[in-house]
Design a protein that fits this description.
By secondary structure, the chain is mainly β. The chain has 1 helix and 10 strands. It has one domain (about 10-120). The protein has a 5-stranded mixed beta sheet. The longest helix has 8 residues, at about 10-20. The radius of gyration is 14 Å and the shape is globular. It starts with 7 loop residues before the first strand and ends with a strand.
């Protein structure tokens, strides 16, 4: 079995400077290795990220009030980052498994969109 690289996550100050929020220890699990980030999208919508660097897993949920609009879960994640391109702000997730690679790019500002790509290598 191939050696898996750890999940590389942007430092807390990058999240704060680009998205205005900083990661915290996830409240629900109480597991110190699971982090979460809550990014407001609108008055009613929120992007909720949770990740575990040791398990290389990332969950991305878009909620509107109590309703879950989108729920993505990726194992074998390799990179989770916040990025900027002019006024646009993004959350970027990269992942890989044997014979394939993928990325999820979520624009959170000034408008919301999700682009998800999964390719054979």
């Amino acid at each position: 079995m191939a050696d898996m690289s750890p999940l590389a996550v942007a430092p807390d100050d990058v999240w704060l400077s680009l998205l205005g929020v900083a990661p915290q220890t996830e409240e629900i699990s109480g597991d110190e290795y699971v982090r979460e980030l809550r990014v407001p999208i609108s008055k009613a919508e929120e992007l909720h990220l949770t990740w575990d660097e040791t398990d290389q897993s990332v969950r991305i949920r878009l909620t509107s009030g109590p309703n879950v609009i989108a729920d993505l879960f990726r194992e074998q994640s390799t990179r989770l980052a916040a990025e900027a391109n002019g006024p646009r702000r993004f959350v970027v997730l990269e992942y890989r498994a044997e014979g394939c690679t993928g990325s999820t790019r979520i624009q959170v500002q000034p408008t919301f969109s999700i682009t998800d790509t999964f390719l054979r290598t």
